[in-house]
Every structure is written in C-alpha cells, then in structure tokens.
Write a structure and sequence with these properties.
Elements lengths: L2 E3 L8 E6 L4 H12 L5 E4 L4 H11 L6 E6 L2 E5 L4 H21 L1
Parallel strand pairs: 2-3
Antiparallel strand pairs: 1-3, 2-4, 4-5
Pfam family, one: Glutaredoxin
Organism: Paenibacillus nuruki
Protein name: Putative glutaredoxin YtnI
Length: 104
Amino acid sequence: MSLTIETTANPGQHIILWSKTGCHFCGEIKNYLELNHHHYINLDVADNDGLRDVLEAKYGIRHVPVVEVGRNGTYTAFLETDLEGLARLLAEEAEAAHSSVEIA
C-alpha cells in the first residue's frame, strides 16, 4: 500500500484520495489538490484487492478515483472525475467546518 501526504490549505478538513498508479483521472485530481494546496492522503489500490474490497463494501464500486472529504470521522464520497464538482464539494465542506467552529 502506498501512502502519500501532501501540504494543506484547509486545516481540519481531511481528504482521502483512492487512486491507482497510471490512472489519468487520478492524476488530474492529484494535480488539482496539489495546485490548490489541499492536504490529502493517497491510498493506491494498484495490486491491492483488499483496498478495492473496502471500496466495494463502502460504495459498491471497485474503480478509482474516489475522493473522500470530511472531518470528525464523517466523510462525503466524491465518485466522479469532474474537477468543478470536486471544487464545490471541497468548498462546501470548508464552509461547514468554518460554520461549526463559529458555533462552538
């Protein structure tokens, strides 16, 4: 299993990228996250049926990319390759995190 941790732009927001070496869409998402300074953990499912089994149990799929975004142990899965949709999800999660800090 490959684990990569990158820099962060949004403390408190956790991003997990399920990817595979050589996957074009996975590379695009990695580039987007890195260019926008998002911290993420990369789980490479290449040659790892156990990780693909986890994806199947959680989401009913075995393909990547999958991006999980959340905080406090609650995550939203992004199963698309649309970078604009990912940007919206990241912004919504950041806003929710900011709102919960203000309330606390």
